[in-house]
Design a protein that fits this description.
Blueprint lengths: L4 H4 L4 E4 L2 H12 L6 E4 L5 E2 L2 E2 L13 E4 L3 H14 L4 E3 L12 H9 L4 E2 L6 E3 L4 E3 L12 E6 L2 H8 L7 E6 L8 H9 L4 E8 L5 H13 L3 E6 L13 H6 L3 H10 L2 E2 L3 H14 L7 E5 L2 H14 L8 H11 L9 E2 L8 H12 L4 E5 L14 H14 L3 E5 L7 H9 L3 E4 L1 H11 L19 E3 L2 H10 L7 E4 L14 E6 L10 E5 L13 E6 L4 E12 L3 E8 L3 H5 L2 E5 L4 H9 L18 H16 L4 E12 L3 E3 L2 E6 L1
Parallel strand pairs: 1-2, 1-5, 5-6, 6-7, 10-11, 10-12, 12-13, 13-14, 15-16, 15-17, 17-18, 18-19
Antiparallel strand pairs: 3-4, 8-9, 8-11, 20-30, 21-24, 22-23, 22-24, 25-26, 25-28, 26-27, 28-29, 28-30
Helix pairs in contact: 3-4, 6-7, 10-16, 11-16, 12-13, 13-14
Length: 662
């Protein structure tokens, strides 16, 4: 039991305000809440047909939950009184706090609440469809359920819209965070998931307040067999350092948040329809959908369409195993081409037993199956001829124990009554082929590493850019190979007698040396070289030979996720092609290797057309060394090496940008 138990599962409710209180009373009445609801108003005798009490002190008992529908200044005093009484918690509905320039008022609210939990302020509240308890002042589209998913949003309007869904998703809770002055995302989410009647959690996230706590929540949910899916909006903007490094721009714009969710084992989708469809999968089958999928339809057009849409969704359809192919050919005859996706034609249409045999045979060879079927609209057509195929989907799931998804190519082609019937039988109907594919891919998200937590985020601070000579000294200290080099404050003082030509000559003091004309390569000697305007010093290095690939490697502090690692092809290639990968530290060698293999240009690192393979293991070793180095030294704000030169054996950091706290 959490400290939010009384607020989320109240046995008694108090409501303050006039119009808003009346709305809450009406919603509780409509949902059949069987506990007392006590309006509180100093001047009215009744509100919403219920006796009104002149003050909180006049209530017959301490309320488990209170909806506070008064102005922001009065809200602070009401919260103070409720906390002193020992009430269970409150919804602070009023807006106009820090966001309206009322400096300090929200802090006063938190102080007034003390240990009593409050949601908000600027918060619509909570709907508990399991017990019919609504601290909610508006319409909604839900109904009572015995078990279902929880929807948690940092936007009240978004979650109201989600309750209007007609996709047969059973919703157990709806909850809003508002300004999250006291109770944050992880705490509220955890309190919802601890209810044994909640099967999964859907999140609309604008910001994560405590990344380590969220990671712990995600791990606990997965252990309990409950999946979490999120739509993440308001992606983190690149920091001020974006002007000085590729890493800052590449790791911003949502790359870090997506990496964090993925490493937590949280499914991420881009749309609200996909969020609802993933929740249906999690509600029925739990997290961890297998990756081997098959697709069946009675039309070549549908088979082609699902194949075309699956590729951008990241879904592949493995070939049909030979034994399965033989069995299907026996059932369907020589005209049907056995493949995945499978067009089984209409030869078996209406034949329930043969259809079930085909569906079961195909499904048994895979982790799950997509069955494309668009029943005719029942208000204008007779859908009875589709019943054998629909029943065969359910029968195939029952026979194989594998998830069978009845997927309508258009969302409106699976009416709510039919969808509700299928959900009650444990078969997930999915609305819209493109949405279904996005949802199924998201539902395949792997669990996070046990015990994985990001490093704590640091407060924003002023930093300074080290010159390249100092930066490479730090890299060497971390065990990263760098070229042999000499440096001096004046060009004439560079002594290259102990170095082997050819040389690279660089001017120090520039964030982007190439753009400033401060890099000269392939020099046999430094005699006659002109000064570089604006240089604060000079660096001469031995050039690396036998180079097979240039890579970018960057690590930076993230204000939410602690420390990110970004990798891609070197130079501007990563930005031009948007072909990079971002991870949140800590990571393993296997995770970095997987990220590299996910790059579109990975074939260039994997012996494309017989080319020699660069030493990616050495690159991975550098990434791990720098991650550990930076995690152990809070003064380092950012490290970027662009490029890391990969040879057939070994890798060398030939350019370095490091920011350090003042």
């Amino acid at each position: 039991m959490t400290r939010l138990h009384r607020l989320l599962r109240p046995r008694s409710i108090a409501v303050l305000g006039a119009g808003w209180a009346e709305n809450v009373i009406e919603q509780c009445r409509k949902m059949g809440f069987d506990g007392p609801v006590w309006p509180v108003h100093p001047k009215r005798e009744t509100i919403g047909g219920l006796k009104a009490y002149p003050s909180l002190a006049d209530l017959p008992e301490l309320p488990d939950a209170t909806f506070i529908g008064v102005n922001r200044f009065a809200t602070v005093e009401v919260v103070r009184e409720l906390a002193a009484m020992g009430a269970g918690g409150a919804i602070c509905f009023a807006s106009g706090w820090e966001e309206a320039g009322e400096a300090g008022l929200q802090a006063d609210l938190v102080t007034a609440a003390g240990d009593m939990p409050i949601l908000g302020p600027n918060c619509y509240g909570v709907i508990n469809y399991l017990d019919g308890a609504l601290l909610w002042p508006d319409q909604h589209g839900g109904q009572r359920v015995e078990r279902g998913v929880a929807l948690l949003s940092q936007s009240s309007n978004i979650v109201i819209n989600l309750t209007m869904q007609a996709r047969a998703l059973p919703v157990a809770y709806v909850a809003c965070l508002g300004n999250a002055a006291q109770v944050g995302l992880a705490e509220l989410a955890g309190a919802l998931l601890v209810d044994e009647r909640v099967t999964a959690l859907g999140l609309y996230i604008e910001g994560i307040d405590d990344a380590p706590a969220f990671a712990a929540l995600a791990e606990a949910a997965r252990v309990a067999g409950k999946g979490i899916v999120a739509v993440k909006s308001g992606k983190t903007e690149a920091s001020r350092a974006a002007a000085a490094s590729h890493t800052a721009s590449l790791a911003g714009g949502g790359a870090a948040s997506s990496a964090f969710l993925r490493q937590c084992g949280v499914a991420e989708v881009a749309s609200l329809p996909a969020l609802l469809e993933v929740l249906k999968v999690f509600h029925t089958h739990g997290p961890g959908l297998g990756e081997r999928l098959c697709s069946l339809s009675c039309s070549g057009g549908e088979a082609g369409l699902v194949a075309d849409l699956a590729d951008p969704a990241g879904i592949t359809f493995p070939p049909v195993p030979e034994t399965t192919r033989t069995r299907l050919a026996d059932i369907l005859g020589p005209i049907v081409t056995i493949s995945n996706p499978l067009d089984y034609h209409t030869f078996i249409w209406g034949d329930g037993p043969r259809t079930t045999d085909v569906f079961s045979t195909m499904l048994s060879a895979y982790d799950a199956g997509i069955f494309i079927i668009d029943p005719p609209r029942p208000d204008r057509c007779d859908p009875s001829s589709f019943r054998p195929a629909l029943e065969a989907v359910a029968a195939a799931q029952a026979a194989t124990g594998r998830p069978a998804f009845a997927v309508a190519s258009l969302p409106e082609n699976f009416d709510e009554a039919l969808a509700t019937d299928f959900m009650a039988r444990g078969v997930v109907p999915m609305m819209g082929l493109d949405t279904a594919l996005e949802a199924l891919k998201a539902a395949q998200v792997a669990p996070g590493q046990p015990g994985w937590r990001p490093v704590p985020a640091l407060a924003t601070r002023e930093t300074r850019l080290l010159d390249e000579a100092a930066a490479k000294a730090l890299l060497a200290q971390a065990g990263v190979p760098v070229p042999r080099a000499v440096s001096a404050s004046r060009l004439a003082d560079l002594d290259t007698s102990q170095l082997t030509a050819p040389f690279a000559l660089k001017g120090l003091g520039f964030a982007h040396k190439t753009e400033a004309g401060a890099v000269r390569l392939g020099l046999a000697a430094l005699d006659g070289q002109a000064e570089m305007p604006g240089a604060t010093g000079y660096l001469a290095e031995e050039m690396v030979t036998g180079v097979l690939a240039e890579m970018l490697l960057g690590l930076r502090r993230d204000p939410v996720y602690g420390l990110t690692l970004t990798l891609g092809m070197g130079g501007v290639t990563a930005e031009v092609l948007a072909d990079t990968a971002t991870l949140v530290w800590p990571v393993t060698a296997d995770q970095i290797d997987t990220a590299l293999r996910g790059l579109r240009l990975w074939p260039l690192l994997d012996g494309y057309r017989g080319r020699p393979r660069p030493d990616t293991a050495a690159f991975i070793d550098i990434a791990l060394r720098l991650g550990a180095f930076m995690a152990g030294d809070d003064s380092i704000e950012e490290i970027e090496i662009n490029p890391v030169l990969l040879c057939e054996s070994g890798a060398v950091a030939v350019d370095a940008l490091i920011r350090r706290a003042e």
